[in-house]
Amino acid sequence: MHIEWFNQHSIPFQVVVAYIPLVATVATTILSLVLARATLRYTETTDKSLALAREEFERQWSPELHVKLERTGARKMKIVVTNLARISVLLQMVQLRKLALAVPSLRSLLNEPLVGGCTWTEELGQHLFACTGDDYEGQIAASVTFYACGRLFRTEWFRFQIHVSRGEIVALDPVNIAARRVQTVDDPSELTQQELVQDVVKAKAANAGSQS
């Protein structure tokens, strides 16, 4: 009886034995796909985390200065430079000009260290009136050039609305404009050229066009 039963069920048993490797292969494939998908998700999450960390690091350690002009008297004005980043910088030059002028009216050379989070101020005195004259109503702009991490940078031109009448400062107010990060000055000799009053990117584009 046992032999007959075994003979009757031998074929299905052999079929089951034959299908075991196939089932194992399918299970392994499914498991591999699941693991691969989990690995991809983990990789994407890691990449996003690294990108956020890099962006946060650049925000905290990239040089960023804020320039402000303040009226301190009828004939007095001071410039206030605030280091908004953590990295320390070395101030090299302050420039002041009318927006209609191609060349700054004031170029004051400096060698002042400015630690991150701190502020540096200086009275401009008669330098302002060298730019505006005794009677002027309009906009002026200020910019600062500085060293950071061994590279030379220049801030955007910060604009101010000023009213000077008979040699006295009647009003001085900042003009709200979209802020841009500092620009790199590749060649320090550019500090003595007129192109310094232009955006660095535009100046390079113009030079490339003239060479072509």
Short overview:
By secondary structure, the chain is an alpha+beta fold. The protein has helices spanning 2-61, 127-132, 200-211, and strands at 65-73, 76-83, 89-98, 106-114, 119-123, 136-148, 151-154, 158-165, 168-174, 183-184.
Description:
The termini are far apart. The radius of gyration is 34 Å and the shape is rod-shaped. It is of the alpha+beta class and 212 residues long. 19% of the residues are buried. It contains 3 helices and 10 strands. The protein folds into 2 domains: 1-61; 63-196, Immunoglobulin-like, CATH 2.60.40. It is 37% helix and 35% strand.
The biggest sheet amounts to:
7 strands, antiparallel
Q: What is the string of helix and strand elements?
A: HEEEEEHEEEEEH
Q: Which architecture of the largest domain does the CATH hierarchy give at level 2?
A: Sandwich
- The 3D shape can be described as rod-shaped
- Residues in β-strands, percent: 35-45%
Mean pLDDT: 76
Number of strands: 10
Number of helices: 3
CATH fold node name of the largest domain: Immunoglobulin-like
Reading off the top of the CATH hierarchy, the class of the largest domain is best stated as Mainly Beta
Termini distance? 100 Å
What low-confidence regions span 5 or more consecutive residues with pLDDT below 50? Answer: 192-206
